[in-house]
Design brief:
Layout: H1 2-11, H2 21-42, H3 44-50, H4 56-59, H5 62-77, H6 79-93, H7 108-123, H8 125-150, E1 163-164, H9 187-190, H10 193-197, H11 199-216, H12 218-235
Length: about 280
């Protein structure tokens, strides 16, 4: 009985063994696409306020269908990679607002614990911890880059955090920006690990987590890092304070227009769950 429990904790309910490397890489890419799309669907209102590019806006309701299709493809190619990265991204997406009550009636920390438990049940303790370390490394490194690039107090600061995941950020919650209309001035710093831990501490933690993840599974770590880098570059293509070409309130050229004088500023929906289903 003890030996059976040990084997189950080590590998989860999925069968041991891994698909070919090419299939695993494609699974990581597809998982990143799914997480990115779901993240943007949840963040449409906030992105309209903060002027961040959002791929779900031009896709409309089809974004959810494409996200499901991408995740189904990932699970077919490599179930262990797809599920462990998805649940790790979900868990990190709840990490900042632990006390927030979400639509299911659970608090964020409870959904985080549930996501971690499902990752362990699916892939086993080592794989689940490695996936959590990998997504955490991507998230913290992304937050560190955002802080270095834009600063906490500047317009557009922290705009791409969340993440991440694979994706933005497979994984985490994308913060409100200091000084943004309808967004609390402290929301951004509270949701950026480089601010909460300190820039140096966040960078060292990211490197340590990344090293642990790469030691356990170099293929998954390399593929996830490449996907996160590509997503970050695409997400920042407009630069600070710019909106995507189809974002609501964007002027020709993509610069977000301020609301008309006397008009109420748009407010991000505080009840929307911050899944970054961010890397």
């Amino acid at each position: 009985m003890t030996a059976e429990l040990g084997r189950w904790l080590a590998s989860g309910w999925l069968p041991p063994g891994a698909p070919p490397v090419a299939a695993r890489v494609l699974a990581v890419v597809a998982t990143g696409i799914a997480v990115k799309l779901m993240d943007d669907v949840l963040d449409q209102q906030e992105d309209a306020v903060t002027g961040q590019p959002n791929v779900a806006v031009p896709l409309g309701g089809a974004a959810v269908a494409y996200a499901l299709a991408a995740f189904a493809l990932a699970a077919a190619l490599s179930p262990r990679d797809a599920l462990s990265l998805f649940w790790a991204s979900y868990a990190w997406g709840m990490a900042h607002g632990a006390g927030q009550r979400l639509p299911l009636g659970l608090r964020a920390w409870q959904e985080t614990a549930l996501a971690v438990a499902l990752a362990v049940l699916t892939a086993g303790v080592p794989d689940a911890l490695a996936a959590l370390a990998l997504i955490g490394a991507v998230q913290m490194l992304d937050d560190w880059v955002d802080l270095r690039r834009e600063g906490v107090g500047s317009p557009g600061a922290l705009g791409a955090a969340g993440g991440g995941g694979p994706g933005r950020r497979p994984a985490a919650v994308r913060p409100g920006l200091p000084g943004s209309p309808g967004v609390g001035a402290a929301a951004g710093p509270r949701r950026n690990w480089a601010v909460r831990l300190g820039p140096g501490e966040a960078l060292l933690t990211a490197l340590a987590l990344g090293w642990l993840a790469a030691t356990w599974d170099p293929v998954r770590a390399a593929a996830t890092g490449a996907v996160a880098l590509a997503a970050g570059l695409l997400g920042r293509r407009g630069g600070p304070g710019r909106a995507g070409p189809d974002a609501p309130g964007a002027a020709p050229g993509g610069v977000a227009e301020p609301p008309p004088q006397g008009a109420a500023a748009p407010v991000a929906d505080p009840s929307a769950p911050g899944h970054r289903p961010e890397g």
